[in-house]
Amino acid sequence: MKITSIITMAPITILASLPRSVLSLAFTVNSRTNTSRINAAKFILRNRPVPVAAIGNRSQLFSTKATTVDDSKTSEENVPSTKPQKTRNRRILSGVQPTGSLHLGNYLGAIRQWVDFQDRETEPFVDDDGVLVKTENYFCVVDLHAITMPHDPKELEESTLSSAALYLAAGIDPTKSKVFVQSHVSAHTELSWLLNCVTPMNWLERMIQFKDKARKAGSTESVGVGLFTYPILMAADILLYQADRVPVGEDQRQHLELARDIVRRFHDLYCKGNAFKKRCKKAGIPTYRTFTEPEAMIVSEGSARVMSLTDGKSKMSKSDKDDNSRINVLDPPKVIRDKIKKCKTDAFKGIEWDNPERPEATNLLDIYAAVQPNRSREDIIEEVKDLNWGEFKQLLADAIVKHLEPIQLKYKEVREDEEYLMGVLRNGASAANEVASATLNAARVAMGFTAYPAER
Ligand code: TRP
pLDDT at position 75, please? Predict the structure, then answer.
């Protein structure tokens, strides 16, 4: 790679540890995309001046050139290097809807993947170009999405807190990942409106999930406009954090594509030419494009895709009226055993994987394997291939109960310590808000909105 392209592509980390937690910034500035965080830093600092001494090297904060940062001074993390080194951040963002209680599908297909990712990839590492890469994980409870279908206000708070607690119980570690509630960061709704006005109707009309959900809901009268614009809110979730990677299930691929399309259209419409540069200059922000194009990290098929217990061909879902169709992560052992006892099987002999005529067998085996992550498929099939359904179900129920037990215990602990949970969500929201409001500000400038009147 040529030196020039390294310089233009290498992101720059700008870290400013300010005394107040709201002003604790950990910024990466990627010269192509992640401009808005500098914008935020500028915006925040302009409006709320803090002593320069507290910021450290101020020129580092606003530099748009490649720079080095002495990590020992600016980061709380233990970075395995004492000499100054180029660093960049990458952001991971994902979320699950807090509708009802979370089930095995949400857990195995999403949350556990986040935990794996967090544990495997959060440690700083040096990439091929010698740049130290740090990962920031943001995991969000998307309560604003939960109201896109009729919801019960009596239950929303509980299901939101319970989801957040389950993230933690499942192994999301607040020292490595930010956990927050979507509606606590108002930039989500605000950017969502801006993007609503940028997105053509017919892009949304193509969304498979909308068509599916709308069809199931019946008449268009009972379908809220929010269900239609749901993918735009999801795009806002992602774009606000300049997330480069978004772990989601296969069913969300289309929504990710939409988010990328929205980014391109937004940049095309608003981030070009001298007029854009002028607006940026006036607002005191660099002229970089507003958003980062996100990439989907599609969670592997197979064990991650959990199907209904009453129909091996449809996804395990919170909206299924029959609670026997799913195992909720918080179901007591007896309920789990009962559900497995009742779940749909077939009339074939033995247990086998991947026979297209036996979707239930495949699904139950997938679940059996997923709750025993240390065993190989061969080992498992060897154990169960000659069993009858009754025998296999017994093993399966035991394995699920055993796997969920520690999560349920941890969950109970977290829920009993409300102060702890609130602390995690407060920190999460504060960190999220810092990043999100910066991006929102950049989007406002790009679109030509008038600035907030300066404080006197
Ligand atoms: N639509 C996602 C789902 O149903 C949930 C979601 C909302 C999400 N916002 C997101 C996932 C942002 C990833 C990133 O699974």
Answer: 44
Fold match, 22-52+86-303+417-447 / 323-416: no
Fold of 22-52+86-303+417-447: Rossmann fold (3.40.50)
Q: Which atom of ligand 1 is nearest to the CA of 231?
A: 1
Say how many Å lie between the CA of residue 138 and the centre of ligand 1.
12
Question: Residue 303 Cα, ligand 1 centroid: separation in angstroms?
Answer: 20
> What was the pLDDT predicted at 61?
26
Residue 65 is among the residues annotated as catalytic for this protein: no
Distance 94 CA to ligand 1 centre (A): 6
CA–CA separation, 345 and 328 (whole Å): 20
pTM confidence score: 0.79
Spans of the chain below 50 pLDDT: 1-77
List pLDDT tens digits, range 46-98.
333 322 222 222 222 222 223 333 333 344 445 555 666 788 888 999 999 99
Please identify, in words, the CATH class of the domain defined by 323-416.
Answer: mainly alpha
Domain ranges of the chain: 22-52+86-303+417-447, 323-416
Q: Does residue 246's CB lie within 6 angstroms of at least one atom of ligand 1?
A: yes
97 ligand 1 Cβ < 6 A:
yes
